[in-house]
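Changelog-linked ticket: flavin-adenine dinucleotide example.
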Amino acid sequence: MTTLLWFRQDLRLDDNPALAAAIRRGGPVIPVCILDPDGEGDWPPGGAARWWLHHSLAALAGALVERGSRLVLRQGPATAVLDELIAETGATAVLWNRRYEPASVERDTVLKSGLKQRGIAAESFNGALLFEPWEIHTGAGTPFKVFTPFWRACLQRGGIAEPQAAPTEIPAPPRWPRSDDLDRWELLPAKPDWAGGLRQAWMPGEAGARKRLTAFLRHGLTGYETARDRPDVDGSSCLSPHLHWGEIGPRRVWQVVEYAAAETPGLRAAADAYQRELGWREFAAHLLAARPEMPAEPLDRRFSDYPWETDRKALRAWQQGLTGYPIVDAGMRQLWQTGWMHNRVRMIAASFLIKDLRIHWREGEAWFWDTLVDADLANNAFNWQWVAGCGADAAPYFRIFNPVLQGEKFDPDGAYVRRFVPELSRLSPKWIHKPWQAPAAVLAEADLDLGRTYPRPIVDHGDARRLALAAFQALPKA
Ligand code: FAD
């Protein structure tokens, strides 16, 4: 009756339905994680994700040991590795929580039927979403294309299950199969070690996720509905990498936010706003399931003909946070240093790449994929297409963010820019978002030598905007 429990993006013990089912089967449970980058199709984990995965697996292994269990690590094509383990352990079942990326769905479907044909019980569960993508549909039975009716349908459906507590003990097999040494997986960066900022910013693993959630409930939920747009005040939960890796489940997050709103009068609006953000995560997964081409192809096919620029120098300046637009540069440096960027600034930086530089959104998507600790196929592709104006329910193309006005509105004192672009730290709020307009005396006073210590804008926003609109207007009409 031995069960293999296959961990993937559900690196937790709390509210883990596959784990609960494995224990219910009654026999020994062997937790397994498989490193299989080729099984991820075109999207093997990027650098920041690999760093996170290493630490998250170390945390999970520790938590399993505390419950009398272990984490068995193996490398190779998942199907072959599971076959090997079945042969070695005599396991009669393989259980896992579902993933929704096209390559995973394809592999898991074949795997499941293959196991079943050989008399091995194979079962998958929902540990990652509030609603399965196929549970929510329009009256005509088709997937939604617009967020608001999608979310209304989700809320009307309701019935979000109560999260299940983590087990106190996990039955162990009499003999453990061999495990790889995590260090041998070489997920951490080789020299140079660029991950110092990540180590400072994050605590991967279930305990780190809980800590973030608790801190957010104490200090962040009140006023979230407005503070979430302010990169200078840490107004959001920073749970995205923990949710991506499944170190905390959305049902648990939903439940504690519900409890907080029920206990504290006045928190309802903040709770609704927060839960709506979880809704965008659901919507992105829903769309990816309906349109598996989303990471590679514009959902609005007119954009296939958009005349993208291929200016590698400009792309490099954007990646390095050297565009001369302080809010964009602060965001790109926050990303490089910490593996994360505030949502408002993600939108501004993405808009700058796509519309001011007219560089393909896929370049931005790929850079984020490699550098974000929360890199998530559905969320990343969905949001890049949203900013580009070619996605479902996307921002209209002609709404082009002005990086100066956005900076002045959402980082009014310039605290965020000062934190990540220290060469501008001595500029006053009046000039910090447009240093090239500052009088020479102000620049001298701030010790700033434009073009030398900080770049001048690599494009003029007004000109870039006109060119972008002209390119858009030349596209075929809808
Ligand atoms: P909170 O405001 O605390 O929100 C709570 C949770 O809701 C988040 O953790 C996240 O899971 C979800 N969420 C919030 N906003 C969005 C959104 N717009 N779309 C989908 N889910 C959302 N998010 C990722 O998780 N992975 C990505 O790869 C990713 N790439 C992005 C690329 C671009 C160009 C843009 C504009 C946004 C991207 N986002 C991505 C969405 C969003 O920026 C992050 O989810 C958010 O900044 C995470 O911070 P938080 O946990 O503090 O969010």
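Closing comment: Example verified and attached. The domain at 301-469 is CATH 1.10.579.10 (DNA Cyclobutane Dipyrimidine Photolyase, subunit A; domain 3). The chain has three domains: 3-127, 129-161+206-290, 301-469.
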